[in-house]
Amino acid sequence: MINPAKAQRRKGSIFNYLFLCGFAASRANNFLFLRAVSVSVSRSLSHSFIPSFFHSFTLFVLFLTFSSSYAQNDSSKLLKKHKDIPAVDRKYNDLARFLAGMSSEKGSSYEEQSNTDIWKNYAANLDANWKITVGAKMDKMSAWSSTEFGPQKELGGKLFYPFAGPDFIHMYTFFPYAKEYVMIGLEHVGTVQDLSQTGSDSLNRYLASVGTSLYSILNYSFFQTISMSYDFKSQDLNGIIPVILLFMARTGNKILDIKGVNVDTLGKNVSGTLTASPENIMLNYGVKIDFYNDAQDEIQTVYYYSVDLSDAQLPSNPGYTTYLNNMGEVKTFIKSASYLMQYSVFSQIRSAILKNSSLILQDDSGVPFQYFDTLTWNVNLYGTYNSPIPLFVERFQQDIYDAYRDNSRTIKPLDFGIGYNYFLGTSNLLIAKKKLK
């Protein structure tokens, strides 16, 4: 005969146990854990007076709890790995995957849009172009970087990419382990647009604009300055954020957060506003994007600033001049930079790069070869150098031409094309490492 008092106490303990198990299951995202909970609960209930229908109902509730947890955005799982990861608003990662032509994660607000013919055609075209023009080449670049730089995690720190435009993909392929990336270009930052409820006509125009903006980088390995001047100022595509998000998603990253930023008059990062009309806000407006990649296993951050780096503008922009001078030690990447630092009117940014950089990876469009004096720099050359493309033929550098023909140098080949001379066998790269004092 069952003692009523003992039965009541047992009933209460089972209720508490069920609550704790349900809570744990909602946090576990683990089927084996749920199964163990179910077995344990079944045994407890089988020895109690609680009716069998409540037994079934309880297991059903546990199943729903687990199912709800399992259906959460995959991006949120990483919150459990690092206490310092900020709260994830999944809308940013959902948008990035949508723009990248990648399948929606369960629960994404873009699931419906991803089933439209408009998006399917866009995704198929992007995927085909990516495989032909980018995929294999990026694998070669990544392997080259690992060979020439050694253990990538040792590079870490801050990566500086002036004259970048939205070219996240080359920067990240060569330097995937930087803690912080600073990209600078003239192009508008723009806004983060919610496309989940966009009508078919507007969506078609928007995705077409994204595809058009990618043509040059996918086919030639660089963004064309003239094209960017209107590609990222259209009614549909009002800045570079979508392209950076697309590249982030395509390289296996999860976007955690996006915020507007500015560099103030003291050279400090402060909160800013993302807007389609940058003329109405202060100088040095930009965007901060926090992201995460399982391979790197840490939060990484990209800053993109829309800033004119010419000597004509920097004196009237003391905030950003201070920011550049106070960056501390950086690794610098320069590619397809229009040979601007050969001109005297870009002397300040050239000096800042030479002062702050412990390592520079660039093609011949970056810091002129004459500035890498042998007392300060160890320089290794890769690929081949004959002449700039016709558009920049007057930027020919005799000293680097001679260096490539110096028999005392060991010049390694490149098995990929990059920069303005993007055809295989015509490209060049330079790694300059600052000597220890």
Structure description:
- About 40% of the residues lie in helices and about 15% in strands.
- The chain has about 425 residues and is of the alpha/beta class.
- It has two domains: about 70 residues, no CATH class; about 350 residues, no CATH class.
- The chain has a ten-stranded mixed sheet.
- Helix 11 links the parallel strand 7 and strand 8.
- The longest helix has about 35 residues.
- The N and C termini lie far apart (about 90 Å).
- About 20% of the residues have low confidence.
Q: Topology, please?
A:
Elements: H1 4-28, H2 31-46, H3 52-70, H4 90-99, H5 117-149, E1 158-161, H6 168-174, E2 180-185, H7 200-220, H8 225-231, H9 241-250, E3 254-263, E4 269-271, E5 285-293, E6 298-306, H10 318-325, E7 330-334, H11 347-356, E8 357-362, E9 377-383, H12 398-403, E10 428-434
